[in-house]
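Why do we bother with a discrete structure alphabet at all? Because it lets us treat a fold like text: something you can write down, compare, and reason about line by line. To make this less abstract, here is a complete entry for HTH CENPB-type domain-containing protein. Read it the way you would read a sentence in a foreign language you are learning: slowly, and without expecting to understand everything at once.
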Amino acid sequence: MDPIQAAIEAYEAQGPEGQYSVQEVANQHGIWRSTMQRRMVGQSVPRSDYISNSRKLSPQQEDELVKYLESLTACWLPPTRAMVQTFASEIARNQISERWVSQFLIQQQDHLTYRWTDAMDRERHQADSGQRYNHFFEELYDQIARHEIEPRHSYNMNEKGFLLGCIGKSKRLFSRTLWEQGGIKTNMQDGNREWITTVACICADGSALPPVLIFASNNSTLQSTWVKDIGAGNHLAHVGSSPTGWSNDV
């Protein structure tokens, strides 16, 4: 890999509170800080990459890609760089490079913005406890052995809330218009997000009931964009809504 690109990826992989500065990362990879910074803002691109990648997509195809990425944001499915690279490669019917993605995002910065997301908020991280999990399963196994409960008679139902489309801290693309309106940014703040809840029920013999998906909706309605892909691929699920997005008696 190009040492400049490797340095940029190493710097971005640190997250928003990185341990190393741009200067320190540049020193680690044996490159000039100024060169690395120019590449990060799109002012410097190797000529070979520019020639090979600049015409991968037509202007119309790029516009369609931007619209699709914006629609994913509206559905709470902000894509990653890797996803953008995959989408563009499928459109071009040829492999798109990571540097093409970088140039594309720079060119489309009036429409798209690149931000850090975290799938789990601070309160949920603090409530996570391996010691409590171990104690629970020790008690569970003791009761199963004491009452000789067969696997086919054991079910576990679990309710899990998550930020749609995110499984961990990562950088994702958002529609700049929706981001600057504030709704998405507000819901990404710790302790104040929009969550979708999934309820899963699995039997100890390996069978499972169709999952339940609960969306947040003040008037208990569902938007078509939330469920349009559930029927694809013969997926089976029960879908509902509540004012909070959690299971409750409302």
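What the structure line is telling us, in plain words: Strands lie at 112-117, 155-162, 170-175, 196-203, 208-216, 238-242. The first strand starts at residue 112 and ends at 117.
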